[in-house]
């Protein structure tokens, strides 16, 4: 006996659906309460599906809403539905997937895929076969509804469909979908391509087995009149280019010609998909060969796509976010940028003739697109552009004063792309005029221009560094004035510009005059913001740079800043603990608060050095750090180890009592899977070693590294493994080598026996770094270890010679150590053998060693 609704119950449900469409919030609240009550009745969901599939007398929005409420119930508690209810819903869905209303068909499709994604693909074995059978229906609505549902299932469960769990249904589904590429209805053709497209990136076996018929079927649709079909064809070709370029190569000429047409498609969604093709092609090794002959056609098309259309300009008057409003333009510019990086100056013959007419065009829209083109090619075509820059720079700087805001803002961006060249010229020629005009634009009346100018100025700061010192007063006046003028979004960019300035000029900022300008507005903002406000992030980052630059100049401000950072860390840890214990009652904390607070504490420790001592003494930071170092989130650990290293340098007496607890945690984090965590842990171990053994007796090779000895075994095996791993990033190799050297400096007896296992990669990773304190301590360690175990270096001695020669000016006592080792080795092997050995040296190395060490 089939389930039938009770008339009174049905009226209640309908009334509820009507009420829930009311704009009144009180009504909405009542609806929510009523829904919760009705959900207690097991067959309430039967009423919902009944309204959706059977009550054709009701209006469509009400029926669809009933289905969407049911979908939410399925999502929340499908596992509690009685089997009879679940069965009734599934049956109704499949019987009504061909409803005459597109809205109802789509709602049923969403409902089906929601049930399927609740693990029901396995327990609803008839679903896929039935939907695939319904595709053969003569009735258009049934075919379209089934395809709509299948497309949603393919989107949600593509991996599961290609697995043994379901007995590989794709073997049947994909050939079936391919048949529908020729269907007379564009909507069906479009669904069919969209279904197959879900399996390209995952390289589903069933699709790979049918790859040639798939590509042929796509070509057959090249001239389709329906824009949705064309868009899906473009999307398929872009993905195939990524995973099966081998199958496209034979047809590449025609594909490129097709994509050239589609990039100019009157439907901008099609044009956008097609434009992605050039971005993907640029990443393929074959790009240069297959595309060179088409640049003549492609470049003008991309350049043309970079103009604002009339619609764009109307939209931008409403001041919508620039990039999101004009995706074609953004995509064309990105494509030109990556192609400039592939073809370099070979692009210019196709571009320069166009560029000249664009840049000096009287129509501002065309001129603006020319400035964008010039910025897009900056990275790839820099060499070839250099001869034209002395003439173009003044023109671009003049565009900063254009009466159109969109021209002013794009000029800011393009100028920032050439900042490196500007700084390489005498300052008066371009840097000074550019800086003067950019600072004016930072105070522009238009928000978009403010934003572009502020970002551009930050880029200029990074390139110019200390070149800016003479203008600091002028720069700070502008940035501080902007504080009063800027609204929320641009303030965040202003913080970045101030932080970058501090990074770029460093201790030059530590002048009373500058501090008095800069600090009051920063501290005002700091006091305005609550602990829960995410705007603290950029302000904390900015203050971290400022504290590091100002050094002792930051002392008057350090107390409240330090206390607040400790509080942020403490609050976040407490919230994380509550969440872990009762995830249903508490929200997970935003750990970024803790990360930026730890980073600012690092900035304070680095800037204030020993002055941070009394702050650390009065706080529980070491206890908090112990918890942060064990956090599940890599970024938290990364910042914790950086802070540990900085505190070790600044105030080791506070760190020392915790070493026994900290070292095993550091050892566990020497895992190169998390590069930055591993890097910072490695660096911290090196800093701790240096502090533990700070009174080494260099002459005898003995050391007071007794306190460090117990921990060598915890960390050394990991460090040796990392330094010998292929494909380890350069910075990690350098840090690992320095830390091994420092460990050996403090505990030579423990580390030297392993010398042979790391000496070669140790030498090759440190030969390229500049002379500095860290390199100095690492090389002292190696020299002491060679003293303890000379045999460990014999086989790789040429690498040691090369590393020694990489020093420009070692300190006298270190030079003396090198001298003793080189001459000791020479005496050991005898003059004749040394001659043979040194014949293998490259000429430059021979010269250096002979000049500096007389060997």
Automatic annotation (TrEMBL):
GO BP annotation list: protein import into nucleus
Any one cellular-component term (Gene Ontology): nucleus
UniProt keyword list: Acetylation, Cytoplasm, Protein transport, Repeat, Transport
One Pfam short name: TPR_IMB1
Subcellular location: Cytoplasm
PROSITE patterns linked to this entry: IMPORTIN_B_NT
Protein name in UniProt: Importin N-terminal domain-containing protein
Bilayer-crossing regions: none
One annotated GO molecular function: small GTPase binding
Domain of life: Eukaryota
Keyword Cytoplasm: yes
Signal sequence, renumbered to the chain: none
Ranges of residues in domain Importin N-terminal: 31-99
Species assigned in the record: Muraenolepis orangiensis (Patagonian moray cod)
